[in-house]
Automatic annotation (TrEMBL):
Keywords recorded for this protein, A-Z: DNA damage, DNA repair, Endonuclease, Hydrolase, Nuclease
Family indicated by similarity: Belongs to the vsr family.
Pfam families per UniProt: Vsr
Source species taxonomy: Bacteria, Pseudomonadati, Bacteroidota, Sphingobacteriia, Sphingobacteriales
Top-level division of the source organism's lineage: Bacteria
Name under which the protein is recorded: Very short patch repair endonuclease
Length: 140
């Protein structure tokens, strides 16, 4: 099956996809800051380079895009019809890297939270963020 876009259009579309400062990530960061949490971003010293690091609480947060990290059962994760094998390999590698980082961080004593893009959509965002806050600071 051929691509519906020209090479130039596809290249432009792919260039607009970011791996830092995404809308879901910014939503979580703004919420955490408004709740009094202070954090570091993308700490290269930690396995998996977590999106948000809350050192005071020994907690890291990964904010996963449903497509890029293969969120099973999610309506936002659809395997592309072109270059299917390549995409499945890429997404499978991302999933394996996520698991490896999770195991490494937990063995170092960090609390790890994974938030999916679909859990930050309008209808679920408030509940997801409140749950996150309760898990980070259970006594408050």
């Amino acid at each position: 099956m051929t691509d519906v876009h020209s090479k130039e259009t596809r290249s432009f579309n792919m260039s607009r996809i970011r791996n830092k400062d995404t809308k879901p990530e910014m939503l979580v960061r703004r919420f955490l800051f408004s709740q009094g949490f202070r954090y570091r971003l993308h700490d290269k010293k930690l396995p998996g380079k977590p999106d948000i690091v809350l050192s005071k609480y020994k907690t890291v947060i990964f904010i996963h895009g449903c497509f890029w990290h293969g969120h099973e059962g999610c309506r936002y994760f659809v395997v592309p019809k072109t270059r299917t094998d390549w995409w499945l390999n890429k997404i499978g590698t991302n999933i394996a890297n996520d698991k490896k980082a999770l195991i490494s961080l937990e063995s170092l004593g960090w609390h790890v939270f994974e938030i999916w893009e679909c859990d930050l959509k309008k209808s679920k965002a408030e509940q997801t963020l409140a749950h996150l806050t309760n898990k980070i600071r259970p006594s408050i």
